[in-house]
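Action item from last meeting closed. Structure (245 res):
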């Protein structure tokens, strides 16, 4: 029964998150002076890319490719997907002319708002309560995701209202969100069968098993990619003040 819940949950967010990302970037695209065809080509290409990546991640997840490596010499496919996916999204949106124009026109509030759905990590707490996910992973990762989602909401609210502390809250949300990933990755490795399985021997982690493997294989790269976009925009906005000083 719980496995069915996990499948439905993951399937829902497999649609929700890419659509949310595209809506955010479409909002920025609408503010640019770029030709319609140029904007449509970029967003259409990104839509196809997100769909293809979702299909590939689903295929790999179903075949247990995202398991923690058995030895240090085995390829860490899950980390390759996590960091490679995030870097690809960041490069596409910040290191192409069209992508940069669109993300420059996307407000800081809209970009950080993508972190609000991070509360979806509460499902780890459900897994722990029902005895399928070890507490050593579920508590820090689940509570960390909830905290990251709340921090994202607080930052979005402040930035949208033009509050004086908006920038500080955006930085805070990015720091909390990225630290949460560090903790989740470390505890995930330590509680899963593999080269560093040091905890949770009675209840090994299933985060790298389908369907939950879609978290590190697809969902986390999207969230991390938007963290990188947010930080890049903050860095860019600080340059005039640095130069003036």
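Sequence:
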């Amino acid at each position: 029964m719980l496995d069915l819940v996990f499948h439905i949950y993951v399937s829902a967010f497999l649609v929700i998150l890419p659509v949310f990302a595209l809506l955010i970037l479409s909002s920025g695209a609408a503010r640019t002076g770029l030709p319609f065809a140029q904007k449509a080509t970029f967003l259409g290409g990104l839509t196809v890319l997100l769909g293809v990546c979702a299909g590939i991640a689903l295929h790999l997840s179903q075949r247990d490719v995202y398991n923690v490596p058995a030895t240090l010499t085995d390829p860490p496919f899950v980390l390759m997907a996590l960091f490679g996916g995030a870097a690809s999204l960041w490069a596409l949106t910040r290191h192409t002319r069209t992508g940069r124009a669109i993300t420059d026109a996307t407000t800081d509030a809209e970009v950080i708002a993508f972190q609000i759905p991070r509360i979806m990590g509460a499902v780890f707490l459900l897994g722990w309560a029902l005895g399928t996910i070890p507490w050593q992973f579920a508590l820090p990762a689940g509570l960390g995701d909830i905290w990251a989602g709340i921090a994202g909401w607080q930052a979005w609210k402040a930035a949208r209202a033009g509050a004086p502390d908006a920038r500080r809250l955006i930085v805070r949300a990015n720091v909390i969100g990225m630290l949460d990933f560090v903790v989740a990755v470390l505890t995930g490795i330590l509680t899963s069968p593999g080269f560093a399985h040091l905890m949770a021997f009675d209840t090994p982690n299933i985060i790298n098993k389908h369907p939950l493997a879609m978290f590190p294989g697809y969902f986390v790269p999207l969230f991390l990619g938007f963290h990188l976009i947010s930080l890049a925009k903050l860095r860019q906005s600080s340059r005039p003040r640095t130069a003036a000083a």
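Note appended to the action item: The radius of gyration is 19 Å.
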